[in-house]
């Protein structure tokens, strides 16, 4: 279903994504982080839907549809390293920084912060071109707003 999209995304020099494709790719990254601990629960699904509603101004049914498409894309996407690097090359820095905040929201959605989730966020942040300090500040902003 998403084969052409993924092929374009992982080309050596991907073109900037359209708004719809960027939404889909970034939401798929949220899903990937939510699934990283082997448990993809209701709190994480709800958090992803709230993030996409706030970020993109979508009504609930559109958020659900976007998330469901992102779940399929995530399951078909290559390893996290190639997928995240492709997003970095195709998405503006400011958007990537706000994605880190959203990723922290998903990680913290179930109330448990696990070591492997921290490691994954460190790796994803670096692959997106976001340094550890900015990622930590993003996490602190999320902690304060929770």
TrEMBL record:
Pfam families: TerB. InterPro entries: DjlA_N, TerB-like. Residues 23-140 form the Co-chaperone DjlA N-terminal domain. It comes from the Bacteria. This is Uncharacterized conserved protein, tellurite resistance protein B (TerB) family. It comes from Thalassovita taeanensis.
């Amino acid at each position: 279903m998403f084969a052409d999209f993924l092929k374009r995304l992982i080309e050596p020099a991907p073109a900037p994504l359209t708004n719809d494709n960027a939404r889909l790719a970034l939401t798929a990254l949220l899903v990937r982080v939510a699934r990283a601990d082997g448990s993809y629960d209701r709190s994480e699904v709800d958090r992803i839907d709230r993030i996409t509603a706030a970020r993109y101004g979508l009504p609930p049914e559109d958020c659900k549809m976007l998330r469901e498409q992102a779940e399929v894309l995530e399951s078909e996407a290559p390893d996290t390293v190639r997928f995240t690097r492709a997003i970095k090359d195709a998405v503006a820095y400011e958007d990537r920084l706000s994605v880190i905040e959203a990723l922290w929201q998903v990680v913290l959605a179930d109330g448990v912060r696990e070591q492997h989730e921290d490691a994954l966020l460190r790796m994803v942040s670096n692959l997106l071109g976001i340094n550890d300090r900015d990622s930590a500040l993003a996490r602190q902003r999320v902690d304060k707003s929770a």
